[in-house]
Amino acid sequence: MSPTGGRRHSRTATEGAAAQESAPARDATDGSASNGSASNGSASNGSASNGSSSNGSTSNSDKRAGDKRAGDKPSTDQPADKRAVHATRRDLLLGAVTASAAAAGAVYLTRSLPKTMLPAHSSSATSRIDFARPAATVRRPTHADWAALRKHLSTRDLIRPGDRSYARARQLFEPRFDSIAPAGIAYCHSPADVGTCLSFVRKFRLPVRVRSGGHSYAGWSTVSGGLVVDVSAMNSVSFGNNTVTVGAGLDLIHFYAALAASGVAVPGGSGPTVGIAGSALGGGIGPLSRLYGTTSDNLTAIELVLADGSALTCNAAHNSNLLWACRGGGGGNFGVATSLTFQTRPLTGLCVYSLTWPWSQAAAVVRAWQSWAPYAADAMWSTLRLSAGFGGAPALSVSGTYAGTPDGLARHLDRLYHRAGSAPATAAARQESYLDAMLAEAGCSAVPLAACHTGPGGQLPRVPSFAKSDFFSAPLSRRGVRKLLSGVERIHGIDGAAGGVGSVALAALGGAVNRVPAEATAFVHRDALFLAEYSTAWTSPGDRDLVTYQHDWLGSYYASMHSHGNGEAYQNYVDPDLRDWQQAYYGANYPWLKLVKATVDPANVFHFPQSIQAG
Ligand SMILES: Cc1cc2nc3c(=O)[nH]c(=O)nc-3n(C[C@H](O)[C@H](O)[C@H](O)COP(=O)(O)OP(=O)(O)OC[C@H]3O[C@@H](n4cnc5c(N)ncnc54)[C@H](O)[C@@H]3O)c2cc1C
Questions:
Q1: Ligand 1 centre and the CA of 469: distance in Å?
Q2: Mutate which of 190, 208, 274 for ligand 1 pocket (most atoms within 8 A of beta carbon)
Q3: CB-defined site of ligand 1, < 6 Å
Q4: Residue to mutate, 572, 607, 610, ligand 1, most ligand atoms under 8 Å from C-beta
Q5: What residues of the chain score a pLDDT lower than 50?
Q6: What is the dotted CATH code of the domain comprising 349-587?
């Protein structure tokens, strides 16, 4: 069992899979690995149906439990070649999405899109319904209505306030959102179940949120008074020809376990209980991203249930614009993903390393790291972390993975030491199987796979936190490095809640992530050297005043660093305080995302504070 944040995940057959035998991987010192981005149009057939395991599947039967910114503003004063890019995407969007939807007989095409308007200039003729405020003619669902919904779910698994398991069922990963009280949590096992839920919320104009792993930083996979469509029971895994198709509710560590058992990999994040759907829809950055791109870059097909209940397959041949939007356009915007297909790469082992330096060397190490990590061989994944316990002393570490031999890793790290002017005070490096490496990255080195979760029987805590992010396209100046360090040094003089920690983690980018043009997928962040995540965490429950001090520290630290970044923020680290989030998350791709939204969800059924607006 792998319940995450109180939700029921079924155990996959992969849980029992033995760790892959550690085999020396190819030394990718020359960084010759190709990007292999699915933006090349190498989509698999999109017929992967959710929940139906095929050959090699590990399904679960117990389901209960250049200036690449060619896409910048579509204005007419741009060079002809850039206008061509816009025209291509516009034609694609106005033509293909509309045509394919019409061909499917979909009823969601409630208006024809203005053919002469570019998205930036278009105005929405769509009448939007405010689902938060039911119209006077719409009655509230009665007990009998809810009972009927339960009856129509194949799982019969609908949890309501008053039910014994409600307190757990409504939890997300983040304890700060434990008081949010949905009117129902529906555990869906199939696209048909999802369609049933959407029909219910349309009928009663209830707010609806989709939940996979439940790790939304802002708690936007739940909603008070509404229906949570939980897809965690959809966690099947089936392998195709260099592809893997997974149910949208699979968590990352079980995804990696299934991949490892087949000797293949997909790049992605390290949070073990993060859901594959929420993660891939917003990008997915982690070990192997510099080698093979974001998780979304490797997404070749997705099955979605749209607001009107229709199920669509999106791949390079069908509904390709929706696939484009789902590759970084953020979770919860366009429909409910029920299954996702990814390109796989052969991989058996990874080297894992961890280094520390004394704080006195911090400035030199940061300067060295930022001129090394984003330019290292693609096989090198690296995170530099500065952190301090509130009231405590700051510390620095550099850790990551290397898809190559231990000798190759040692050669690369020597270059970092040389630049830093010193060897680390502590250094640990070892070769691991792919699964063990991902368990190490997940903080589950000493924990069996079956216990690498936060639910009953799990050994991971649910950690309350706040976080913000910046992408950096230029190295920090000396002044910038000083600010980076002094923000963490300041923590020493601040009272924090029990277990209070403040940190910044710089994740190296470049490599395959930056070889994909910004407009090729909805994930626009293609010229950053690194991504910074500023965060502060504490032990739950935290003293309110002391948590406020931590929150204030985070805000002032972010404010001091933000001007050094490129203005972009990571849509998977949703930040409710971000003002111009449209630009920060999606940049020049936002107008196109609005157009897709207008086509597939004109009535704005899927909405939350930072959801894409139809337009
Ligand atoms: C502890 C932790 C570690 C993390 N580590 C990493 C990391 O290493 N790399 C990285 O890139 N990110 C990381 N993240 C961020 C993570 O990728 C995002 O928070 C992601 O959106 C979480 O997805 P989820 O399915 O777990 O969350 P959820 O809260 O379930 O969903 C997140 C969003 O996606 C929507 N959504 C969920 N399921 C579906 C679906 N089936 N169809 C449509 N929309 C859906 C939700 O409505 C919500 O808006 C981490 C987050 C946490 C809390």
A1: 15
A2: 274
A3: 173, 209-217, 220-221, 231, 248, 269-271, 274-275, 277-279, 281-286, 331-332, 336-337, 572
A4: 572
A5: 1-134
A6: 3.40.462.20
Q: Cβ of 567: how many Cβ atoms within 10 Å?
A: 13
Measured CA to CA, the distance from residue 215 to residue 268 in angstroms comes to 15
- The answer to whether the beta carbons of residues 431 and 347 sit under 8 Å apart is no
Instruction: Retrieve residue 465's tokens.
Output: 């936190």
User: Which of 312, 310, 332, 331 minimizes the C-alpha distance to 322?
Assistant: 312
Positive or negative, the Cα torsion across 182, 550, 6, 229? positive
Q: What is the DSSP string of 225-237?
A: TSEEEE-TT---E
Q: Mutual orientation of helices 362-370 and 406-420 as an angle, nearest 10°?
A: 120
Q: Which two tokens stand for residue 16?
A: 């029992």
Residue with tokens 């992408």: 471
CA triple 185-208-218, angle to 5 deg: 90
Beta bridge partners of 386: 396, 504
Q: Strands of 14-90 (E only): list them.
A: none
Residue with tokens 């001091």: 560
- Predicted confidence at residue 27, as pLDDT, reads 36
Query: For a substitution probing ligand 1, which of 215, 513, 570 has the most ligand atoms within 8 Å of its CB?
Result: 215
Which region, left, alpha or beta, applies to residue 316 given φ > 0 means left and ψ of -120 to 50 means alpha?
Answer: alpha
The sheet that has 501-508: what strands, in order across it? Answer: 426-433, 349-357, 394-402, 380-389, 501-508, 530-537, 465-472
pLDDT of residue 16: 31
Q: How many CB atoms lie within 10 A of CB 419?
A: 16
Give the pLDDT of residue 136: 57
Expressed in angstroms, the distance from the first to the final Cα of the chain is: 43
| Helical H segments across 252-355, by residue range | 252-261, 276-282, 289-292, 320-326
Q: Considering the entire predicted model, what is its pTM?
A: 0.83
Q: In the prediction, which pLDDT does 95 show?
A: 43
What type of residue is 573?
Y
